[in-house]
Amino acid sequence: MHVPDGFLDAPTSIATGVVAAAGVGLALRGARKELDERTAPLAGLVATFVFATQMVNFPVGAGTSGHLLGGALAAALVGPWTGILVITVVLLVQGLLFADGGLTALGTNITLMGLIGVGVGWLVLVAVRSLLPRRPASIAPAAAVAALLSVPAAAAAFTLLFAVGGAADIPFGKVLAAMVGWHVVIGIGEAVITALVVGSVVATRPDLVYAARPLVRARTLEVRRNTTAGDAA
Amino acid sequence: MSVGHRLLAPGDSPVHRCPAHLKVLGLLGFMLLVVATPAAWYPAYGGYLLVLAVVIGVARVPPLHLLRRMVVEVPFVVFAIVLPFVAHGEQVEVLGLMVSQPGLVAAGTLLAKATLGVLAGLTLAATTEPHDLLVGLERLRLPSMLVQIMSFMVRYLDVVTDDLRRQHIALSSRGFTARNPRHWPVLARSIGALFIRSFERGERIHLAMLSRGWSGKMPRGMSSEMSNR
Q1: Which listed residue, B9, B24, B150, B164, has the most CB atoms within 10 A of its CB?
Q2: CATH code, A140
Q3: Which residues in chain B (93-122) have CB-CB distances under 8 A to chain A?
């Protein structure tokens, strides 16, 4: 999934590098609000988690399998700013220590998967969350829609970049349709897995899910009469 | 072998000893040059490959070690193969198929540039210790928060992937094999558990750092001292 060197020309690569640097700069400020002084260890461990998660193969059938990209998942679990930082660090480590994704394409990859993947994911999540009942259980479906839309959004952005600074003259409309179509399929898988993962964390530790925090806090202490116990006595 | 060191080919060559920040800058400059090279300059690509071959030779990285890692490029080979069939321009016949001539040239250039990029990146990864790389990035003025997050990731990569491996052993030993999408909920729950474990580990690490007098900023040079074991 990582864009390698040479797919986009030098000016486009440098331009996306500048966009990525500006975005990550904003994220560095924003993350302090989400995680206060614990940012470094927590974001580091969550980045490691995302990296490990991408190694889990989800069998699709007929011998093929896919893996999670994790942009929308990171946004739902740790918030948009920390999510961008986490994906950025994963891409940096993959690019520099694993030669996965070109060094000149690092800015492009951070822009596509970090800024757009996490950003679109978070905005969609917040929009869907506001439409659903104010319960922690609403986070999983909201995260699913976020994942479903953020993957084709990143693919569409890549097609746009390729049309501007790509190495080949391609029929833009046809390629856009093919890329978005294919990534909607990937997005469906991403949506199902993201919803299942977020659902499982919300069920056990809703306090750890950033997107669920306003809903968890909204719950007030209540006294419930245990009727079954009363009947038995 | 641990995840973080999978690509490392330890050695004591001038390439290994070269400070990491110079290597990263060199790689970036080299790749920008490659990316900016026009498609038709075929001899230039031969020259680039020769330069890389010399560096790999001096570093004494086993070529097989690099070749085996080049599979990361595969998805883009597919993209390059499709390109001549969808691109605009004059059609030419190759092996009985009508393809776009500019598309063919673009696909060839794309493959050449991407291959050089992967090979150069693998050479950096094979000759640079992860903690040297972090020190190098710090010297290159990467925001210190970003370097700190990266250093935690490098340090705990093996711990977290081992956590994941143990979960898989636990699943397998209970007879679970993921075969189709109906098994996704089990895998997803294990990922959910991994998130909780990783996040809580992060909280414990933070408390451990506080108890050792951490003030919110990494003391200079500590990252290298600590990783020297």
Answers
A1: B150
A2: 1.10.1760.20
A3: 102-103, 106-107, 109-110, 112-114, 116-118, 120-122
Which residue of A5, A28, A201 is in closest CB contact with B31? Answer: A5
* Angstrom distance (rounded) from CA A214 to CA A226: 28
Give the pLDDT of residue B8. 80
pTM of the model: 0.87
CB < 8 Å to B157, chain A: 48, 51, 93
Region of A33 (left: φ > 0; alpha: ψ -120 to 50; beta: rest) is: alpha
Interface check for A159 against chain B (CB to CB < 8 A): the answer is no
Q: Over A101-137, what HEC string results?
A: CCCCCHHHHHHHHHHHHHHHHHHHHHHHHHHCCCCHH
Q: How far apart are CA B18 and CA A230, in angstroms?
A: 76
The verdict on a CB contact (< 8 Å) between B152 and A47 is yes
Residue A25 has pLDDT above 60, yes or no: yes
| Token duo for residue A192 | 């199902």
Which chain B residues are closer than 8 Å to A39 by Cβ? 145, 149
Domain that holds residue A227: 10-232
**Nearest chain B alpha carbon to A22:** B143
CA distance linking residue A55 with residue A113, whole number of Å: 17
More confident of the two residues B219 and B65: B65
Question: Which residue in B69, B164, B189 is closest to A52 by CB distance?
Answer: B164
Angle between helices A71-78 and A139-165 (to 10 degrees): 130
Domain count, chain A: 1
Q: What is the number of alpha carbons within 13 Å of residue B11 lying toward its C-beta?
A: 21
User: Cβ of A97 and B196 within 8 Å?
Assistant: no
- What's the pLDDT band for B2 if we cut at 50, 70, 90? low
Q: What single-letter amino acid sits at B166?
A: R
